[in-house]
């Protein structure tokens, strides 16, 4: 029996060797790929951590510039963050600050550029903020159809009341009073009881004679 077992064992070993000769590069490749993938995953997590830390450090001079009302330093810092860490929260935050400074200075084109960048690259919550501000800039320029198009792009329930209120302002600016009333009414309905938007929309609606 032992001789037969040894012979069978030798045959299995021979088959295994033959299989290895035929498939070793595939197996080695799979192992290397797994190691690289794991190493890449660890490297990516490390990158995200260090990237977030670096973005926070780069945001410090932006925050200082906001306090000092130094628009030049603010824009320089924001541009640097947007270029190096475009997907970070801090980059979008800096872009929003820079856009506000540009708008306050009457530089609407610069403000639009920054806001459009956040809408495209920013995290969801800041995209909503940027979209509202972009619509407000367009309304200031009397570009009402463009402002409404931007507002129509909102898909976030958290911004529904704000969008409706601003839509009412756009309609009011065009003299479309019935549509303005409908928008303010929607803002009131969608806003939480303690949301300031609710009170503001109510004041506007009442000024137009109520829902009618």
From TrEMBL:
Origin species, per record, is Usitatibacter rugosus
Which membrane topology describes this protein? Single-pass type II membrane protein
Give the similarity note. Belongs to the YfgM family.
Q: What is this protein called?
A: Ancillary SecYEG translocon subunit
Which keywords appear in this protein's UniProt record, sorted alphabetically?
Cell membrane, Chaperone, Membrane, Transmembrane, Transmembrane helix
Q: Where in the cell is it found?
A: Cell membrane
What molecular functions are annotated in GO for this chain? Answer: protein-containing complex binding
Tell me which residues make up the Ancillary SecYEG translocon subunit/Cell division coordinator CpoB TPR domain: 17-209
